[in-house]
Automatic annotation (TrEMBL):
InterPro entries: AAA+_ATPase, ABC2_TM, ABC_transporter-like_ATP-bd, ABC_transporter-like_CS, ABCG_transporters, P-loop_NTPase. The chain crosses the membrane at residues 403-421, 433-453, 474-500, 512-535, 542-561, 625-643. Residues 71-310 form the ABC transporter domain. It comes from the Eukaryota. Pfam families: ABC2_membrane, ABC_tran. It comes from Chironomus riparius. Belongs to the ABC transporter superfamily. ABCG family. Eye pigment precursor importer (TC 3.A.1.204) subfamily. The lineage of its organism: Eukaryota, Metazoa, Ecdysozoa, Arthropoda, Hexapoda. It is a multi-pass membrane protein. Signal peptide: none annotated. This is ABC transporter domain-containing protein. It is found in: Membrane. GO terms for molecular function: ABC-type transporter activity; ATP binding; ATP hydrolysis activity.
Amino acid sequence: MDPILQQETALNTIAALSMSAMKADNNHTAINKHVQTEYIKGSVDATDYQHSPSAIRAAFCNMPVCEPIEISFKDVSYCVQKMFSKTRKEILHKVSGNFPSGNLIAIMGPSGAGKSTLLNALSGYKTRGVSGAIYVNGRIRDLNEFKKSTCYITQDDRLQLLLTVYENMKIAADLKLGNNVSLIEKNSRIENILTALGLYDHQFTITERLSGGQKKRLSVALELINNPTVLWLDEPTTGLDSYSCTNMIAYLKQLAQQGRTVICTIHQPSAKLFEKFDLVYILAYGKCLYQGHSSKLVPFLQSVSLPCPKFHNPADYAIELASGDYGMDKVKTLSNSIGNGECLSWYENPNRVMKLEQLRQKIPISDEKKKSDDVSEFHKLKVLLRRGVIKTKRDQTLTHLRIIVNVLVAILLGLLFIGSGTDGSRVLANYNLMFAILIHHVFAAMMLTILTFPTEKSIILKENFNRWYSVKSYYISTTLIDLPVTIISCLLFSIIIYIMVGWPLEADRFSVFFVVSFLIVFIAQSIGLLIGTVCNVINGTFLGPILAVPAMMLAGFGVTLKDLPPYLYWGSYVSYLRYGLEGYVGALFYKREQLKCDVMYCHYKYPEKFLKDISMEADQFSKDIYALLFAIVILRVLCYYLLKWRIVLSR
Ligand SMILES: Nc1ncnc2c1ncn2[C@@H]1O[C@H](COP(=O)(O)OP(=O)(O)OP(=O)(O)O)[C@@H](O)[C@H]1O
């Protein structure tokens, strides 16, 4: 027989044997056999083979036992304001339900059914527009308190891509656990979690280079570090192959079996995945169509005279019914039969589902509120600065490219204007150069921020919701962390251009030139941050340059200050570029001696005459610097409040 064919037959035999073993064995053994099969087939990375349920169990055995949290909700609705209309759209229609602790719960339904909306409403990720009652252990949810025990894992992986897996875990541990937990304990938790989730052998891999499934696992791993009791996961299996999906659900199941409440949205699970869920909550058109154990879905459908066809995946059939494939009347029948989530008869043990009063009695308030948030914001700031330093060192765009671009542009401009700094016939050319420098500083700094900040913003939304840090700590760290690179790139630019153009080698003049350049860069970054906070990348890329144009025109370039129409003169005081240009002119032309003139006539041989012609008071540079500093303070404070407002608005 052909050796390749022979090998394939052997592998198929092993696969077939393992598949039959899976049917016979219990769930855990089945998963292990399945993993073995995949491993033999070679479709799995050898290092991934180690995630067995026992590894998952071991990972959390040394963590404090979770306080069980049961979530119930009644008549929950979610409304949004329609765009360009005063009417509101109801997305969830008074749904009820009960999510007991120690269960792996799937919120299922066709696309647009409202799964993510329900997950967001129950987790507190969205609060505006949510109505109805949400209970935690029988008491009305106190969101701040509740968030201490929960974590939310978004559908898209919002990770720090420039950090290694271990660095990401260490930063998460330092932010969430602070100094209350020893380094040994933190490292032990990290090691256990990474081993359990099959990431141990990838711990020194840069996150950017991980596969989709590994990134998803890392998203989960980061949130497990402080041992949350409730996990909310928005589509944790989307984009994963069947092997990774099985693994992901197996991890989640193990986490649930240790007493956690694990709730995830899922599109259309395979029959094998579907049976792993302890509780299934099916939604369609914002209404509940089924709530109960996965094994009881078929009897439920039978009971409402909608029997699942033989050899049909019940999950698929339920989704087909929910999508309205068999008629909208069926959707209504299902929703009415389950009381829009009020009926608990299809739970595995309906009698064990506790009433709100029973829950309140079982879990007293004092026990419930024992998790305290005692990591100081100062400590978090230090950790964020550490993270910022690592990122800055590795960031090819914000650090390396920025410095290189500054050096190259300085050389290019220097070559264009070489030796013109002392030439009486090239004073106007010097003025143009100053303007070119300003434009370079503004666009380079502003556009980089506009293009990169929106991605960072989505990470902040997740990390801030999961209580990693406050907006204030993040904001201070991001402001401080950028300073060294800004100073280095600006200093290199200033030195190169100053020497090449041949401006007077006097410390005072160079210092003012550099300080003005630095302040302009800082202002441009702040404007970029402001635009990036409010807009997405497309709108920001459009708005940024457009908003810079009036500032240029009102700075006294093109139209000199004395030619500005009186009704627009106020604009020159608002334009930060005016202060920049005035600062440059002052630094480079104020009290200069007569310039050399190698041609017959040099109109601006005496720089004072030039200053008079452009109506600039060149002895004002201290005022210019104060004006620029004032603009920075205003913009930075505004940015901070806008960022806070944006976060509140997104909830
Ligand atoms: N802010 C909003 N404004 C208008 N409509 C919205 C808004 N948010 C959600 N919707 C609508 O609500 C419905 C439910 O959205 P949701 O994202 O919860 O669906 P889903 O079941 O998670 O879908 P998918 O599986 O495709 O992610 C969709 O029709 C969506 O268009």
